[in-house]
C-alpha cells in the first residue's frame, strides 16, 4: 500500500493522508485513499477527495479514480 500511495502522490501532486478502505479483488487489491486537494484555514474547511485505486498482487498501481469530494469537517451521511 505504501508503494501505491507513493505512485498516487506522484500522479496527483499531493500526498495521500489516509487509507479508509482496503479489500482484496480478483486481480489484486482495491483501496480508498483520502487526499487533501485544497488546504484552507481553518483545517475543517479544507477540500478532501476520496480516490479508489486498483492495485495488482504486488501492490503496483493499476488505475485510480476520484469517487468523492468533501470538506474535511463534513460528516458522511451515506449508510
In brief, what are we looking at here?
With 79 residues, this protein is mainly beta. It has one domain. 14% of the residues lie in helices and 52% in strands.
Structure characterization notes:
The chain is mainly β. 11% of the residues are buried. It has one domain (2-71). The protein contains one helix and four strands, in the order αββββ. It is globular. Helix content is 14%, strand content 52%. A four-stranded antiparallel β-sheet has the order 1-2-3-4.
List keywords for this structure.
mainly beta, 4 strands, 79 residues, 1 helix, globular
Outline the fold blueprint.
Elements: H1 2-12, E1 16-25, E2 28-38, E3 47-55, E4 61-71
Antiparallel strand pairs: 1-2, 2-3, 3-4
Rg, rounded, reads 13 Å
State the low-pLDDT regions, or none. Answer: none
Number of helical elements: 1
- List the helices and strands in order: HEEEE
The strand count comes to 4
Percentage of residues in DSSP E strands: over 45%
- Mean pLDDT score: 90
The structure class reads mainly beta
Within the largest sheet, what's the order of strands? 1-2-3-4
Largest sheet geometry: 4 strands, antiparallel
Helix proportion of residues, in percent? 10-25%
Distance between the termini: 26 Å
- What number of domains? 1
Described by the principal axes of the CA atoms, the overall outline is: globular
